[in-house]
Write a structure and sequence with these properties.
Helices cover 57% and strands 15% of the residues. The chain contains eleven helices and ten strands. The strands form three sheets. A five-stranded antiparallel β-sheet has the order 6-5-4-3-7. The chain has a three-stranded antiparallel β-sheet with strand order 8-10-9, with helices on one face.
Length: 369
């Protein structure tokens, strides 16, 4: 070996050792990638007829680079062990290799969580179910736990006393919990909203003065897109403390209207209106016949009120609007064919007619004076 490569650098290492340490990095990386590619080809060759092979290949493809990195680290350590580093150099390199291994494992687990979440959402979409936001929250929680565990493992590799660190984190966690009470309330509220399935993405809800479609449920807030196409973010803590009306969970839709007929409607005409309305509800297949009713309700101040009450068995709100329009037009036609009409607030003033009442006459003395 040339003398220039055998000279010491930094007082401990020889130049050829440092060069070998650097040049072995791409060598270990290349060998690791070839081994991973060979393993994938072997799996393809040995399991062509297996039904889950496509999913497995997709998972390997998502983390192939990280698998190569995970395999390259011990390969590089094995090669570096042959170049005879000094004792302190071996100690520093071993610590760096373990730290890189911890980072690689944590990164691999995070990517696997991403892959499994996307796969679960894809299967839900294929089965016709909306992708639950609990998948997103679960992914975030799991990835946060993995990152926290990797950080603690890295501190342990660096020589930090984990017992003291965990005790300090516990005290700091209590202080942080008091300081971030509202934030934690929203986070726990989001978990409750998703696990209890109070609302789901795509549901139409009413919360106070806000009504719209749920677009997303995160750890902190629920986003609702209103009819005006604005997005309202409501903290999950407020969601749990408020009354939520989930309009999408209705199994049937209420059709309830009052027909105000004029007071000049005769008894025969009123009976014709009642019979026609009952026949309309009976023959319409969208009406739940067990609960439908038509009743002469009251003598109102300006009208004769007839209540039409029914539940419509339709799938969604647009279908209900269409069915309601058909029924209202049919009810108007029944009233017109019966010879009656709809009343509106009116006032009639009657003037009484009669002979004028004569006033008092003057006496004879009054006339003389």
């Amino acid at each position: 070996m040339p003398t220039s490569l055998r000279r010491q650098v930094g007082g401990r290492y020889r130049l050829w050792q440092l060069l070998a340490l650097i040049l072995l990095l791409p060598v270990a990386w290349l060998v690791a990638r070839l081994l991973v590619a060979g393993a994938v080809l072997l799996i393809d060759w040995s399991g062509k007829s297996r039904p889950g092979l496509a999913d497995f290949r997709e998972g390997i493809g998502a983390v192939r680079t990280l698998l190569g990195l995970l395999l390259a680290i011990p390969l590089h350590a094995l090669l570096v062990d042959r170049i005879g580093l000094p004792l302190l150099g071996r100690f520093a390199y071993a610590r760096a290799a373990r730290l890189a291994l911890v980072v690689a494992v944590g990164w691999l687990v995070v990517r696997l969580i991403d892959f499994l979440t996307v796969r679960a959402a894809r299967r839900l979409a294929a089965s016709g179910l909306p992708a639950a936001s609990s998948l997103t929250i679960g992914r975030s929680v799991l990835q946060g736990m993995v990152v926290a565990g990797a950080a603690l493992a890295a501190l342990g590799v660096m020589g930090v006393n984990l017992t003291t660190t965990l005790a300090g984190l516990g005290i700091g966690g209590l202080a942080l919990a008091f300081a971030a009470q509202k934030s934690l309330e929203n986070i726990f509220g989001g978990v409750v909203v998703l696990t209890d399935k109070v609302v789901r993405v795509g549901d139409v809800v009413t919360l106070g003065t806000v009504q719209g479609t749920v677009e997303d449920v995160t750890l902190y807030a629920t986003r609702i897109r209103t009819v005006e196409r604005a997005v309202v973010s409501i903290p999950n803590g407020m969601m749990m403390a408020s009354q939520i009306e989930n309009l999408s969970r209705r199994d049937k839709f209420l059709f309830r209207h009052t027909l105000g007929l004029t007071f000049d409607t005769t008894t025969v005409q009123l009976q014709a209106v009642l019979d026609g309305c009952r026949a309309l509800l009976d023959r319409d297949p969208r009406v739940e016949s067990a609960t439908a009713r038509v009743r002469f309700l009251r003598l109102n101040a300006y009208s004769l009120d007839v209540e039409v009450f029914a539940y419509l068995m339709v799938p969604d709100w647009p279908a209900f609007l269409a069915a309601q329009e058909d029924l209202l037009l049919a009810l108007m036609d029944i009233v017109e064919r019966a010879g009656s009409g709809f009343a509106f607030p009116t006032q009639t003033t009657y003037l009484a007619s009669g002979a004028a009442v004569p006033g008092p006459t003057a006496s004879a003395d009054e006339k003389a004076s």
